[in-house]
Design a protein that fits this description.
Blueprint (H helix, E strand, L loop, with lengths): L2 H20 L10 H8 L3 H7 L3 H21 L5 H4 L1 H13 L2 H9 L3 H7 L1 H9 L2 H10 L1 H24 L9 H12 L2 H26 L1
Helix pairs in contact: 1-2, 1-4, 4-6, 6-12, 10-11, 11-12
């Protein structure tokens, strides 16, 4: 790798990290290019060689995070999320572990969860195009399958978000095993059907408990 290329990567990373750090101190709208170059100790020419403005920096952070997520999935193929999900979750965790503080800031401040949520349909379409996805869609029906995918994506995203923020007693390194169990369990139609068959009993028990408390 040429020295100029390495220097370019370092500069871009410094700019992105500096923006996230500044967003901890004041609102994004109040952050200027001057704030970034002074904190990152670079000149304005270096900034504009990589980014148009501060919003371009934030957009690039979000785009790169989504790109890393989709790359982790596409490296193995959409079927893997159903057949061997641990491999994909391990790939995601490995990427985040490389620089947990940066990704923590990106999730907490940079708006990563909202950005990914805005592009979930792209992930849904990718899963639906797989052989396993088409099979499950046929068995469950499109509406239920899309709801399941939405539940998976939202839940897994929230787990990684909370783990990076230290809000749950589970590290990023431990999440692949847990997420794998969750996906495997929730993709079992038999299990879900058993739950819905038992749902009236749960409802009756809850109503009985409420009635007992009111007496």
């Amino acid at each position: 790798m040429k020295a100029e290329y390495r220097s370019s990567i370092r500069s871009k990373n410094a700019i992105k990290r500096t923006l996230l750090e500044l967003m901890q101190e004041k609102s994004f709208e109040d952050i200027t290019v001057t704030d970034i170059v002074e904190r990152a100790d670079i000149n304005r020419g270096t900034f504009y060689a990589h980014f148009k403005n501060t919003r371009d920096v934030l957009m690039r952070i979000n785009e790169e995070m989504l790109k890393e997520l989709t790359a982790s999935i596409e490296a193995y193929g959409a079927d893997y999320i159903f057949i061997n999900p641990r491999t994909i979750f391990q790939s995601i965790s490995n990427s985040l572990i490389k620089d947990q503080n940066y990704y923590r800031l990106a999730f907490q401040i940079g708006g990563i969860p909202d950005y990914i949520n805005e592009h979930k349909q792209e992930l849904f379409d990718y899963f639906l195009s797989s052989n396993t996805g088409r099979f499950i869609e046929k068995q469950w029906g499109r509406q239920q399958f899309l709801c399941l995918l939405d539940f998976w994506c939202s839940g897994i995203l929230a787990l990684y978000y909370d783990s990076l923020a230290g809000r749950i007693p589970m590290t990023v390194a431990e999440l692949p095993e847990f997420c794998t169990r969750m996906v495997t369990m929730l993709s079992s139609r038999e299990l879900v059907e058993r739950f819905f068959q038992a749902a009236p009993a749960f409802s009756d028990d809850a109503e009985a408990g409420t009635a007992a408390k009111s007496e």
